[in-house]
Structure formats: C-alpha cells, structure tokens
Design goal:
By secondary structure, this protein is an alpha/beta fold. The chain has ten helices and twelve strands. It has a single domain, classed as Rossmann fold (3-Layer(aba) Sandwich), CATH 3.40.50.720. Strand 1, helix 1 and strand 2 form a beta-alpha-beta unit. It is globular, with a radius of gyration of 19 Å. The structure holds NADP nicotinamide-adenine-dinucleotide phosphate.
C-alpha cells in the first residue's frame, strides 16, 4: 500500500513515519517544505498515486490560535477540505487527526464519538471545522481524535517536567484538568491498525485508556526518572492566566473502536512506563 504523510516532521508525524516504514509500506513523507496543505495546487502536485493520506499537519499552538484564528482556520479547516477533495478525486483514503478541544470539557463522563462538538476556544473551533470539512468532501475518511499527546520528537509535557525538575526543588501542577496522556508511538500504531482493519469511515477516539490529572501524571514522570515524587505539589488551573481556555475534562470513550473490534490504546500509566523507557533512554538506538 502507498502512503503519504503530511506533517511528517511534527511530533506525531515522526513516529508515524517510523511505524509505516516498519510495516514495509511505500511512503511519501512530507512537511511544509514539500507541501502546503492550504494550497490546492501544491496539494495536487504532491498528492498522487497513493492509497492512504494521513494528515498530521496542523496549527497546534493553542494559545497563539486565540490571536491568529484566521491562520489557524486556514491550516486546520481549509487544509483538510483541500486534502479531502483531492483524496476523493484520486480515490485515496484520508486519515485525519483531531482533538479533544472540539468538546467543551464540561462533561463529567467520557465523551463518546457522537457527542456534540462545542469548542470553547479558537483552536478547538478550527479543528471542529476541519472535521466538518472532511465529512462534507469525502466519503472515505477516518478522523481520529486524540488528546494530551506526548512524544520524543516534540516539546512534550514529560520532557518539560524532566527539564524543570533538574533546576527546581518543587514543581506545582494542576489537579483540576482530567485527561488521558497518550504516547505518539501508540497513536501511530492505532492509526496503522485502523487502516489495516479497513475501518468504516467515521470518527474514532485515539487516546490511552483510563484517566488522570496533570499532577498525577507529573508524579509518574518524576518517579520514572528516579526522583522523589513528593517534589510535585498541587495547584489549580485558575492559578495560570492562559489566553486559551483548557478543557477541564478531556476523557474520551472508545466506543467506536470497540464496535469494530479494534483494541483501544492501553491504560495511560502502563503506557507511560513503556514510553519513559524510550523517551528518557540514553541508548543511541532509541534516539
Ligand atoms: N500535541 C497534542 O497534545 C495534540 C492533542 C490533540 C490533538 N493533536 C493533533 O494531533 C496532530 C499532530 O499534532 P503534533 O503535536 O504532532 O503537531 P506538530 O508537532 O505541531 O506538527 C505539525 C506539523 O504540521 C506542519 N504544518 C503546519 N502547517 C502546515 C501547512 N500549511 N502545510 C504543511 N505542513 C504544515 C508543521 O510545520 P511547522 O512546524 O513548520 O509549522 C509541523 O511540522 C494535529 O492534528 C493536532 O491538532 C495534538
């Protein structure tokens, strides 16, 4: 099968490229230098002779999106529309990655795939528009919503906490945002499994199972680098004055995956232990 990954240089893109190549597929891996997903001529030139296009290119700066919503919209909504039209034209399947930010975050129970999208901030609005644009322009798509993504190839939360723990005696982390820390390697694997399973077109949730808050996740990170987790203290989101609102509750249910018999990603804590052994490894083979 011939794959194309747009956004291959991003945090998820890197691990997805590795995963697709490991399976022996033909792969065209492109990022901004080779393709502009917001430009239909650029897309037409690059997107051809493929079976599957995975779009992990996005405007992901949540706070900056509040100031630059028009730019974020072009990348997160117009881009997916152009890709969806092109995929329909050439008969390719489109796999697109979306986010928990399409929900309000006000729920107290896991969001299922059909729950109403009611984003509170600009980033979520643009990502929700991207989902609508895909559904309106192709019948052959998989939208995978993920959340709390971390990986070795980006400025991810675990790397930040590790770095801060090297210069500070105490880390203060919020307890009132609940979610599912999700490793890019696991999400890449899920995307490949969905394609292999010829999953019906629709929306799927691609997050770790279980739920936690940033405080408890940070304690697990600190433990995994051999430090005393009691250096992590509690605070609330109100202590941070951030331009974009954060969802308080970002737990996603995996009902659509279960319906088609594709196993969801495992429990966040067990997956973190596995991820930490790779992300914080000094072995050059893991770099
Ligand atoms: N990170 C998270 O916690 C999280 C949570 C939920 C959902 N997601 C979703 O997961 C996906 C992957 O996220 P990520 O964290 O891996 O993203 P990322 O690291 O920010 O990578 C995105 C990539 O897309 C590229 N890009 C931006 N605009 C483009 C354009 N017009 N044409 C071509 N490429 C362009 C970026 O290039 P530049 O660097 O040059 O801009 C970057 O290489 C995104 O759809 C995101 O919305 C992420």
């Amino acid at each position: 099968m011939r794959w194309l990954i747009a956004g291959a240089q991003g945090m998820l893109g890197h691990d997805l490229v590795d995963r697709v190549l490991a399976d022996g597929h033909d792969l065209i891996a492109v990022d901004r230098e080779e393709i502009d997903i917001t430009d239909s001529d650029s897309v037409a030139q690059v997107v051809k002779d493929i079976d599957v296009l995975v779009n992990v290119a996005a405007f992901t700066a949540v706070d900056k999106a509040e100031e630059e919503e028009a730019t974020a919209f072009t990348i997160n909504a117009t881009g997916p529309e152009i890709l969806a039209r092109r995929c329909r034209e050439i008969g390719a399947r489109l796999i697109h990655v979306s986010t928990d930010y399409v929900f309000s975050g006000d729920s107290t129970e896991p969001y299922n795939e059909e729950h109403l999208m009611e984003p509170k901030g600009a980033y979520g609005r643009t990502k929700a528009a991207g989902e609508w644009a895909i559904k309106a322009n192709t019948d052959d798509y998989i939208i995978v919503r993920t959340a709390w993504l971390y990986g070795r190839h980006g400025n991810s939360f675990p790397a930040t906490m590790k770095r801060l723990s090297e210069t500070r005696d105490k880390l203060t982390v919020v307890t009132d945002e609940i979610g599912q820390p999700t490793w890019t390697v696991d999400l890449a694997d899920l995307i490949v499994r969905l394609v292999d399973a010829k999953a019906p077109s629709g929306v799927y949730h691609g997050t770790s199972s279980g739920a936690t808050n940033w405080f408890t996740f940070t304690k697990a990170i600190i433990e995994s680098i051999g430090k005393d987790p009691s250096m992590v203290g509690e605070t609330t989101a109100a202590a941070f004055n951030r331009p974009a609102p954060r969802p308080h509750y970002s737990v996603l249910a995996h009902e659509a995956l279960q319906r088609i018999g594709v196993a969801p990603i495992g429990d966040w804590r067990e997956r973190w232990i596995q991820a930490a052994s790779v992300m914080f490894s000094n072995d050059p083979a893991d770099q």
